[in-house]
Design goal:
This protein has 229 residues and is an all-alpha fold. It has one domain. Helices cover 74% and strands 0% of the residues. It is built from eleven helices and no strands. It is globular and about 65 Å long.
Length: 229
């Protein structure tokens, strides 16, 4: 696919095309992730994200420069956290509200990956036998959708790591005793350093890849059962 794009656009343009596609996927993936957090909190009774203008899909509202760069370069990253005030959650929903709000971001990415894979399957059916013009269009769509699939699955898995400040660390609040949870949170400032160390650990990288492939295979299995494909 890339070799064909090189023939069409030339070696001088192929890098620019790939750069634009990756940038578009980064903006969309991070925006969906943070919007999902904000929307879940809103449905639980917290209007903070809405009042601060974060309940939208605009990349300008959600991008964290370092997190976006990491996602761009490595496929793993994060966005600017959506402000959440658990005190505004509906009565008795403090812990469950935080869980749903935290899970919503990765879940939003998995849903985006699912529909990207679904659209990819449809486009692939029209690719064979298409005219040269449509073959170019379909090729760009295939690269775009493939990037969205893998990027969003990786983003979802990465953010479920139970290390501050990622979403997985907030989910711990629901499964750990409060005393133990707050004891762990004392080391929150070292979370980023721990993440860098973990990502560069071969075993941990293989674990992330295994989980990402598990989700990918699950999506492919579900789509394979759809009658219209």
């Amino acid at each position: 696919m890339i070799s064909r794009m090189q023939n069409w656009f030339g070696n001088g343009w192929i890098g620019i095309v790939e750069l634009l596609i990756t940038a578009l996927c980064v903006f969309l993936s991070l925006s969906v992730h943070e919007f999902a957090h904000g929307y879940a909190a809103y449905k639980m009774g917290d209007n903070t994200a809405k009042y601060m203008g974060r309940l939208n899909l605009s990349p300008l509202s959600h991008l964290d420069p370092i997190g976006a760069l990491c996602l761009f370069l490595f496929g793993f990253g994060w966005a600017k956290p959506v402000p959440v005030n658990p005190r505004n959650f509906k009565s008795g929903k403090f812990k469950s509200g935080m869980v749903w709000t935290s899970v919503a971001g990765p879940l939003g990415n998995i849903i985006l990956a699912f529909f990207s894979m679904l659209f990819l399957s449809v486009v692939a059916k029209f690719y064979t036998g298409a005219s040269e013009l449509w073959e170019k269009v379909f090729s760009l769509l295939i690269v775009l959708l493939s990037t969205l699939v893998y990027m969003n699955i990786n983003l979802a898995v990465f953010n479920l790591i139970p290390v501050p400040p990622l979403d997985g660390s907030k989910i711990l609040n629901a499964v750990l005793p409060s005393r133990l949870y707050f004891k762990i949170m004392q080391y929150e400032q070292y979370g980023f350093i721990l993440l860098i160390l973990l990502i560069n650990t071969p075993f941990f990288s293989r674990l992330l890849n295994f989980l990402s492939n598990l989700i990918l295979n699950g999506i492919q299995l579900i789509i394979g059962f759809l009658p219209f494909l």
